[in-house]
Amino acid sequence: MAIRNIVKEGDEVLRKISKPVTKFDERLWQLLDDMAETMAEANGVGLAAPQVGILRRVVVIDVGEGVIELINPQIISAAGEDVGPEGCLSVPGEWGIVARPEKAAAKAQDRNGKEIVVEGEGLLARALCHEIDHLEGRLFRDIAQRMMSAEEMQEMEQAEQETGEE
Ligand code: NI
Question: Global pTM?
Fold first, then answer.
């Protein structure tokens, strides 16, 4: 496993459409292992392959319940709405208020090519949508209701702690 360099906003690769994965081989497994390690090291909850410069439809997510690997993922259902703060490892120091579905389900393949379905609520639903957007060259900035600086984000977190909200 190896830590890969995370591409930052402004790099063209983040605006390109990723290609489907057709070979479920050791090269893919190496990419998945590296992405999981890179995400963990950066304290992220998700990472898409274009963020490490690879235009393939590969995503890893970890909302604190272990790493989920998604190959060729597609959202198949979404319900409700959750408006909340969101960030991205490719857009350091900035957050945005983004409306996402409260619940979402994605179908995908696992690292061996087997079909899987992942259902999520809250943060997991948000991460599924955010990471799949990366595969289409979309960043959360594109759909944010507004952007927030690190200072604003800190103030929001403090206010939530004081009121005892989650
Ligand atoms: Ni992102």
Answer: 0.94
